[in-house]
Write a structure and sequence with these properties.
The complex is a heterodimer.
Chain A (H helix, E strand, L loop, with lengths): L1 H29 L2 H6 L2 H11 L16 H12 L5 H13 L13 H36 L4 H15 L2 H15 L12 H35 L2 H8 L4 H9 L5 H15 L3 H6 L5 H10 L3 H29 L1 H5 L1
Helix pairs in contact in A: 1-15, 6-7, 6-9, 6-12, 6-15, 7-9, 8-9, 9-12, 10-11, 12-15, 14-15
Chain B lengths: L3 E14 L2 E14 L3 E5 L6 H8 L8 E8 L2 E2 L5 H4 L7 E4 L13 H13 L3 H14 L5 H4 L9 H13 L5 E5 L7 H18 L2 E6 L2 H4 L5 E6 L2 E7 H6 L4 H7 L51 E3 L3 E3 L8 H13 L16
Parallel strand pairs in B: 3-8, 3-9, 6-7, 7-8
Antiparallel strand pairs in B: 1-2, 1-4, 4-5, 9-10, 10-12, 11-12
Helix pairs in contact in B: 3-4, 3-6, 4-6, 6-7
Classes of the chains: A mainly alpha, B alpha/beta.
Chain lengths: 335, 352
């Protein structure tokens, strides 16, 4: 078991290294960071030519006597942009590890502060959505598999296909309209006053998110349960005279959780980055909307910082999912 | 004659499917005395497992069941609601074919034994665990106190089947149904498991139904053997009578598929020609007629009823083997070179 965990931790580190490197280089290739700091491309091309000795630096700024290229050079040095990509990556990685995510180009605030402020809201939304999804999907899935083909099962099938086919912005808008605008049962926007107000104001968006996920979980769980129900050990348990309830919860459920927790890992990972649409509809200042703003404004440090946090979260969640497999099935431990 | 423990009368089991109704069991009648061991022999699809599952109340909800099953004076198909909880698994239990799949892979062996004890007998965890260790010891599992904490995948096939048997015996049932208990394990283990089951049965005065497709397994252990074909019971007799003086042509054909030690080596075993009968909407004729060397026109006109001596040697055939009527039918078919159904036959070596 210790070896298993050690191996997974090494894998985890390698995945994180690869993800951050790809994200870092992609952002550097897709746009020159310098442009975002000093302005239009023409000046940079011009200065490259000056540097190469192809022409004289004939421009000076109006207010001081320094040439534009001099300023660009200073900026390059300040941000380390004169160094090769690999070197810049490792410098950046070193900073990240020590908790320095850099400073937003846009707001001049430390990226770590921005993330610390936005991420918990998205995480809370995610956690509540997953709790709601599991709380709905597991009992409903178990019951519909137990009564497969009967009225309740058919009704839940229709309901879950309905939930799967309604995009969450549509459901979000409908729910918002009904529960907050028409009836004022629940708050329409995020309230950061206390833990209780946070839970209270996130309940509606979390339910909208959670129901969509619950539908997927319910389908997966039902299918896996029906497969497990065909197993001989289920007949054996029946022959031993165990109750249906005991058989469903003690014999059948556990070996049927594999697809569900796999998708749980993936959807949790996806939701760490926040749900942009739901955050938008319910005015939650989470990380999702922050990333979109940062991408549009080419705010590299914010984008990179968020990518690192989200990717790490994704990888860590899936590490725990892998650990959970071994708890579910002792045979995984042996192999 | 000792007491009857189990009576099955006119049992019909049907499964409606989209292609038609599968007639899995058609009017099966048999009895089992206390402490007796009955072998039910037949090929796949002959209805033997469905019969067992009917007794155990394990059929899917779609199954249509008709007939009477009485176990220790109680109507099995109408057990009172409050008695149902502790009926199957306590008085009557079952062991399945494949020990690899009949244990839950994610539960420790011990837990799978103790759950019955805790539920049916209300034992505490500690008592149940002690009993589980005892049971494992009784079924010949070495180091039982270590095994209770192991998972099924850590045990060999033979050991797993022993664990399954321990599980089934936990609440001291008076009837054990073993559905091909040794088919999935290798031959050396097979004999040991059968001897174990036989010994346990004798020690506990338990009755047993041994379901198998292998007549050799039934021989020497079962008091009586019932042969099933196409959902019907075609012959039933005390084991030695069945082997020495079989009446139904299917039993006779089955016996010829077993190698015998008293025959010269290299004696050819004879396969049974043709395919197993269609169970969906079968015709009103003897199900074996198409494959039968004795088949006569009357075999295609009606289903032969169960005849012979009731309680002694029963069989369902118009032209039984080892009788004058049968010999006559066979001779006529041999002379023609084929039967009424067009089955090509010739005199075989070693048959009379």
């Amino acid at each position: 078991m210790a070896r298993f965990i050690a191996r997974r931790v090494v894998q985890l580190a390698l995945v994180l290294l690869a993800v951050t490197f790809v994200a870092f280089s992609a952002l550097n290739f897709l746009g020159d960071p310098l442009v975002n700091i000093v302005g239009p491309l023409a000046a940079i091309d011009y200065c490259d030519e000056v540097e190469a000795g192809l022409r004289e630096d004939s421009f000076t700024s109006i207010n001081n006597s320094r040439g534009d290229c001099e300023i660009i050079g200073e900026v390059k040095a300040e941000f380390g942009l004169d160094k090769p990509l690999a070197q810049r990556y490792f410098t950046w990685l070193g900073n990240i590890i020590t908790g320095d995510f850099g400073t937003s180009f846009q707001t001049q605030l430390p990226v770590s502060e921005i993330i610390a402020q936005k991420l918990p809201k998205s995480l809370m939304l995610m956690a509540m959505a997953q709790i709601i999804a599991l709380a709905v999907a597991i009992p409903v899935g178990v019951y519909s598999a137990y009564r497969a083909g009967r009225a309740v099962d058919r009704a839940t099938s229709v309901a879950s296909f309905g939930l799967l086919s309604i995009p969450n912005f549509a459901l979000g808008v409908i729910v918002l309209q009904f529960f907050t605008l028409r009836n004022q049962w629940l708050p329409a926007s995020f309230d950061d006053t206390s833990f209780f107000t946070r839970v209270h104001s996130l309940f509606l968006p979390a339910t909208v998110l959670g129901l969509g996920i619950a539908a997927t979980y319910q389908r997966l769980l039902r299918t896996d349960l029906l497969t497990t129900l065909q197993e001989d050990f289920v007949h054996m348990a029946r022959a031993k005279g165990m109750t249906d309830r005991h058989i469903m919860t003690r014999h059948v459920l556990r070996p049927s959780l594999f697809s569900l927790i796999t998708v749980f890992g993936v959807s949790t990972g996806a939701l760490i980055g926040g749900s942009l649409v739901i955050e938008g509809i319910f005015s939650i200042p989470g990380i999702g909307s922050e990333i979109v703003t940062a991408v549009i404004r080419d705010d590299f440090p914010v984008v990179l910082g968020s990518v690192v946090v989200i990717a790490s979260g994704f990888v860590v969640i899936n590490f725990f999912v892998d650990l959970f497999y071994t708890w579910l099935d002792p045979r995984v431990r042996a192999s | 004659m000792s007491d009857l423990q189990l009576t099955v009368e006119d049992l019909y089991v049907r499964f409606p499917t989209s292609r038609g109704t599968v007639e899995a069991v058609n009017g099966v009648t048999f009895t089992l005395e206390k402490g007796q061991m009955l072998g039910i022999v037949g090929e796949s699809g002959s209805g033997k497992s469905v019969t067992a599952k009917t007794l155990m109340n394990l059929l899917p909800r779609t199954a249509e069941v008709d007939g009477n099953i009485t176990f220790e004076g109680e109507d099995v198909r109408a057990v009172a609601k409050e008695r149902r909880k502790h009926f199957w698994g306590v008085k009557m239990t079952m062991v399945f074919q494949d020990p690899m799949t009949s244990l839950n892979p994610v539960k420790r062996c011990g837990e799978q034994i103790t759950e019955t004890l805790r539920y049916h007998l209300g034992d505490t965890n500690a008592t149940a665990k002690n009993k589980a260790v005892d049971l494992l010891e009784q079924v010949g599992v070495p180091e039982p106190s270590k095994r209770v904490d192991q998972y099924p995948h850590e045990l060999s096939g033979g050991l797993r089947q022993r664990v399954v048997i321990a599980m089934a015996l936990a609440c001291e049932p008076s009837l054990l149904i073993a559905d091909e208990p040794t088919t999935a394990v290798d031959v050396t283990v097979q004999k040991r498991l059968l001897d174990l089951l036989d010994g346990l049965r004798r020690d506990r005065g338990m009755s047993m139904i041994l379901i198998t497709h292998d007549l050799g397994v039934a021989r020497g252990r079962c008091d009586d053997v019932a042969v099933m074909y196409g959902g019907r019971l075609v012959e039933r007799a005390p084991t030695e009578t069945l082997f020495a003086d079989s009446r139904h042509p299917y039993t006779e054909a089955l016996l010829r598929t077993i190698p015998r030690i008293d025959q010269p080596i290299h004696t050819r075993l004879e396969p049974i020609a043709g395919r197993p009968p269609e169970l969906i909407d079968p015709a009103e004729e003897c199900a074996f007629a198409l494959r039968c060397r004795y088949a006569q026109p009357d075999c295609l006109e009606a289903i032969p009823p169960v005849g012979g001596v009731k309680g002694q040697h029963e069989f369902a055939c118009f032209h039984p083997a080892n009788t004058a009527r049968g010999r006559q039918a066979l001779d006529a078919n041999l002379a023609a070179g084929q039967t009424v159904t067009g089955l090509q036959i010739q005199a075989a070596a070693g048959m009379n």
